[in-house]
Write a structure and sequence with these properties.
Chain B: Belongs to the CPA3 antiporters (TC 2.A.63) subunit C family. The complex is a heterodimer of chains A (501) and B (160). Chain A is mainly alpha-helical and 501 residues long. Chain A contains 21 helices and two strands. Chain A is globular and about 70 Å long. Chain B has 160 residues and is mainly α. Chain B has a domain of 87 residues: Helix Hairpins, CATH 1.10.287. Chain B is 52% helix and 0% strand. Classes of the chains: A mainly alpha (501), B mainly alpha (160). At the A-B interface, helix 5, helix 6 and helix 17 of A face helix 2 and helix 3 of B.
């Protein structure tokens, strides 16, 4: 079973090499990408079942035993993230194939798109599977390098302007991460996460705290947590729609995943939980207030993205099983929904020629299907019952109330307010773009919406609804994953069956 | 470098400090070329920092000397990896700077959209558009909005 473990990383990388060589044959390129990502999805599902039934799946790469060689670990959290991310990347790939066929002129197809996209996927899956801090760093670099190419795709003036900010901020956060990795190694003499879990416990309190904050700083930039989030709304919206969608869905969540790992496996005990809670509350409120003031759909969704990262950080900061379970559920929900919303924004842009709310109107009458496609995920994001957004928020708020104390309760209030403001923002977009009288910009359809794009969006919406229907079993898995994370022993014992050296 | 076991030399520590602080200073510039130089310096500083994390000593090859006097090979392997990565990212950033210069004539990082909007509004003394939900005052003949009050210039503000 553990032989399957490298496949989610290796298959996309091989696919990237093949699609690069076969750049002249677009049809073959598309077939390879779709096959590669479908394989990844199947393998991820098998790994999740295995991890749920029999505990973490571990592979020592190159058969070097753990503390010397590097390990890949798929525990329930990693496997769950793997399944969701592969499903989302596959849908976005299909969407972008549809878009490529529809677009002409400045947005003409670029041969480099498929290889880069596959490298990005490999980076994301590697980050989830990494059982070694340096391997995690390399995974981040893989996905960042690919994302740099994707965000500046075509090299137009706007994309270069926003891309340069994104590139510099990302490199800076990588430097912080690298320095933290170096310091962790200097303090403990290892980078294997299971071994670190033991050795970090033995360090003096101050050193531990410094290392923890350094790592959280690096991951905080990637996850776009409030004081470190200003780069996101400025750089994401200018990229092509599928690229923005996959960035919004996955890249920030990789950061959240890294925060969860740091806070549970490496530094349990919640030394900085108060700090994390304050930061989470500010992320929620500042993000959603930003969204209220926006007049462009893509920028608006970028702000809701930042805002809802706060919910996940809140769950992590509670560091109870219920809080963690809620946070993991919310990550799964948010990956799906936020990606869907950006895909819908892409469809609106294609249909109406703009995503600027001042130029839109009457879409519900002219394109009823588009209206439904927007309405369902938007209400889901806002947390209207019975959707998964409601269930996720309810889980987190319940965990907050159970934890008690002034700060968690203040955060519960902030979370409720954010949820209401999200509803306000979603209904505002609905009223302006879909409900009011048609505007000039929306009258003549530029092109018919390609069936592939609509199909991929529908598939993601169905996935979002499936999360609602299957919320019970899914909460079982996340609660189980959270219990394992809190215990730490299942992970450590899986990596070192004969005890930690 | 001093012999095996002892801590890092002061030279190395100072070098890291100088590289990182120069790097940070350059990162605060607006021109991408300077930012690029800053990233190069910062990257090298961090690489040296990693080198200090391991024990120094003889070449870590089995059979060339006693094992406890060998240097730690792991930080060296990590530094090699990170040098390659920094090199790649630097090359990419250089390409971005070149493209920016090609398109706009300079490689400065401009203000973002929001900032420029706020500056524009402040100059015209406008309030931000509150909600776009209605049809706007222009579309509704019944609605008459007063002109925004002009800001009264204080005496001595200098009406040139």
């Amino acid at each position: 079973m553990s032989r399957l473990l490298p496949l989610p990383v290796v298959v996309p990388l091989l696919g990237a090499a093949l699609t690069l060589v076969l750049g002249r044959w677009p049809r073959l390129q598309r077939a390879i990408s779709v096959t590669g990502l479908s394989t990844t999805l199947v393998v991820a599902a098998v790994l999740l079942v295995q991890a749920y039934r029999h505990g973490p799946v571990v592979l020592a790469v190159g058969a070097w035993p753990p503390p010397v060689g590097i390990v890949l670990v798929a525990d329930q959290l990693a496997a769950l993230m793997l399944v969701v991310s592969s499903a989302v990347t596959l849908c976005v790939l299909l969407y972008s194939i549809g878009q490529r066929q529809a677009e002409i002129g400045e947005n003409a197809p670029v041969t480099i798109y498929h290889p880069t996209y596959l490298v990005l996927t490999a980076g994301v899956t590697n980050a989830f599977l990494a059982g070694d801090l340096f391997n995690l760093f390399v995974a981040f670099e893989i996905l960042l390098a690919a994302s740099f190419v994707l965000i500046t795709l075509g090299g137009t003036e706007v994309r270069i302007r926003t891309g340069s900010t994104y590139v510099v901020v990302s490199i800076l956060s990588s430097m912080v991460f690298l320095a933290a990795v170096g310091l962790v190694y200097a303090a403990t003499g290892t980078l294997n996460m299971a071994q670190l879990a033991q050795r970090l416990d033995a360090l003096p309190e101050g050193v531990r705290l410094a290392l923890q904050v350094a790592l959280l700083l690096a991951f905080g930039v990637k996850a776009a947590v409030f004081p470190l989030s200003a780069w996101l709304p400025d750089s994401y919206p200018t990229a092509p729609a599928p690229v923005t969608a996959v960035f919004a869905g996955l890249l920030t969540k990789v950061g959240v995943y890294a925060v969860i790992r740091t806070e549970t496996l490496l530094f349990p005990g919640g030394q900085v939980s108060r700090l994390l809670m304050v930061v989470a509350g500010l992320t929620m409120l500042v993000g959603i207030l930003g969204a209220v003031a926006q007049s462009d759909m893509k920028r608006l969704f970028s702000f809701t993205l930042v805002s809802h990262i706060g919910y996940m950080i809140f769950g992590v900061a509670l560091s109870t099983v219920a809080g963690l379970a809620g946070a993991i559920f919310y990550v799964v929900h948010h990956i799906t929904i936020q990606t869907t919303l950006f895909l819908v924004a892409g469809l609106v842009e294609l249909r109406a020629g703009s995503t600027d709310l001042r130029r839109l109107g009457g879409l519900a009458r002219m394109a009823p299907l588009l209206g439904v496609l927007f309405f369902v995920p938007a209400m889901n994001l806002a947390g209207v019952p019975p959707f998964s957004g409601f269930l996720g928020k309810l889980g987190l708020l319940q965990a907050g109330v159970t934890a008690g104390g002034a700060l968690p309760l203040a955060l519960v209030a902030a979370g409720t307010l954010t949820s209401l403001l999200t509803l306000y923002v979603a209904s505002r977009v609905w009223n302006i773009a879909f409900w009011r009288e048609p505007r000039l910009a929306t009258e003549e359809p530029a092109v018919r919406l390609p069936a592939t794009m609509v199909g991929a969006t529908v598939a993601l919406i169905v996935l979002g609804l499936a999360l609602t229907v299957a919320a019970g079993p899914l909460f079982d898995v996340t609660a189980d994953a959270a219990t394992d994370l809190r215990d730490r022993t299942p992970y450590i014992r899986a990596v070192f069956p004969g005890g930690t050296p | 470098m001093n012999g095996g076991g002892a801590g890092p030399t002061a030279v190395l520590v100072v070098a890291v400090g100088v590289l990182v602080s120069c790097g940070v200073r350059l990162l605060l510039e607006r021109s991408l070329t300077r930012i690029l130089l800053g990233i190069v310096l910062l990257g090298n500083g961090v690489n040296l920092l990693i080198m200090m994390g391991g024990r120094s000593g003889g070449a870590p090859v089995v059979g060339t000397g006693p094992v406890d006097r060998m240097s730690d090979p792991l930080p060296q392997a990590m530094v090699l990896t990170s040098i390659v990565i920094t090199f790649g990212l630097t090359a990419f950033l250089l390409a971005v700077a070149y493209r920016s210069w090609y398109l706009t004539g300079d490689d400065e990082v401009p203000d973002d959209v929001e900032d420029r909007q706020i500056v524009r509004r402040a100059e015209r003394d406008e309030v931000a558009t509150a909600d776009l939900g209605g049809e706007g005052p222009g579309a509704d003949p019944e609605q008459v909005d007063p002109e925004p009050a002009r800001r009264r210039l204080r005496r001595g503000d200098g009406v040139a």
